[in-house]
Amino acid sequence: GENVEQHPSTLSVQEGDSAVIKCTYSDSASNYFPWYKQELGKGPQLIIDIRSNVGEKKDQRIAVTLNKTAKHFSLHITETQPEDSAVYFCAASKAGRRALTFGSGTRLQVQP
Amino acid sequence: DAGVTQSPTHLIKTRGQHVTLRCSPISGHKSVSWYQQVLGQGPQFIFQYYEKEERGRGNFPDRFSARQFPNYSSELNVNALLLGDSALYLCASTTSGGLSSYEQYFGPGTRLTVT
Known about the structure:
Chain A is mainly β. Chain A has strands spanning 4-7, 10-14, 19-25, 32-38, 45-51, 56-59, 62-67, 72-77, 86-94, 97-102, 106-111.
């Protein structure tokens, strides 16, 4: 089955700096890659996603890139703010398989 | 619009007992998925239901079962609870169960503690 690895497990940045979280996946048939933000005591919140026919997608301070050949995708957060502090999860799924396979999460801490 | 709702918020059960968790999807969404999130890990897929039919099942024992009702709400049932079942149980809704639908929106979860 699909396996998703996520790095780093923890990331501490200064407010205003950029943060990058990377994930690799094993199943070349995977074609949908969402990113979730989970705050303490809450469920995961979908923040951005990308499909395999697109190499990059941006939404204000957040961007995701996908390299299908290398089977990895990354989340980029620019101009980080303290409210960006949370656990971020990457995930992957493919047509015909309705489950999301999640990475192990990255705890991002933005220092004011 | 209301998001995905789950009940109860927290639950404490004893080993060997049974538990039922409930989920209401976003209005207009017809598909519900269940995930288990153990502390410090990413969510793991348990089930997906669409139009009252099971459309996917993860690697969980038969003690776990679920169903979906005509109003698209869903229940997750776990029998013979084990200490290892302690986790946050998440429900996610999707617009449809079709192959072209992907976005899953999660509820706040039910925190289950088994003692």
